[in-house]
Predict the 3D structure of the following.
Amino acid sequence: MSVFVTGASGHIASAVIPELIAAGHDVVGLARSDTAAAVVTALGATVHRGDLDDLAGLRKAAEASDGVIHLAYNHEQMRSGDYTAAVTADLAAAHAFGDALGGTGKPLVGTSGTLAVANLGRPGTEGDAGAPGGRTEAENAVIGFAEQGVRSSVVRIPPITHSALDRHGFARTLIAIARRTGVAGYPEDGANRWPAGHTLDVGHLYRLALESAPAGTRWHAAGDEGIPMRDIAQSIGDHLGLPTASIPAERMKAHFGFLAAVVVLDNPTSTLVTRRVLGWEPAHPGLLADFDDGDYFAVPPPQG
């Protein structure tokens, strides 16, 4: 099928697009700049120039496709603190795709995060809907398109999606924070758990969802279903030769910056339904094994 992919020059797309092409699909990737277009072309996809603000262009591209995978999200706005603008743009794009695909039965695979079901006191499941607000609004909108004749589904990505393809994710952010502060920190006793997923396993799940996910379903792309934050910090500290320590509540913002409100969340995540229904099985190293591989701690070569 012909698949329109947003965020086509990003981290997750670097696994999704090759996965789709290897399975025989044709891919059209959204690119907002010449640099992004070059990346999309190198991955083997056809370029569609535009951005998330061009809703008419998104509708046109979706109408011309056999299915859509929506990966794009304005992470720059989120990191700068303008979270509301990022959420609003994501929701508008989702509705553009719902309008374009309504009544066609074509697949739309949206993107959300497992943090939508954090702090439940138990592992979050694929059947759990996130609380209203934030990025969950777009997730719930995509799920609701099932009632409008769209074979819609959502892949929830864990907060750490890791591999050599990852250049700017939360794993690299935590490592950079440890380097900057001289401490590999964790909140409180560090017992809160974060799931993680290898980029290539995440890419595989997107293809499975596109090809066979029933309408109105959520899927979890977590190879590691919950690693204690203390263990993540310990691994980072060991690799950097830095001490590992609990960060007091009054110093969380100064230490973790924009991650301070997120790093405290407990997010154990079940993948039972994802594995049983879609047949998804992670085949690549978990986070701590990936850390041991060394790419995350390699020193960049001198410039010039």
Residues 115 and 262 are 9 Å apart (CA to CA). The longest helix spans residues 83-101. The two ends are 45 Å apart (CA to CA). The first strand starts at residue 2 and ends at 6.
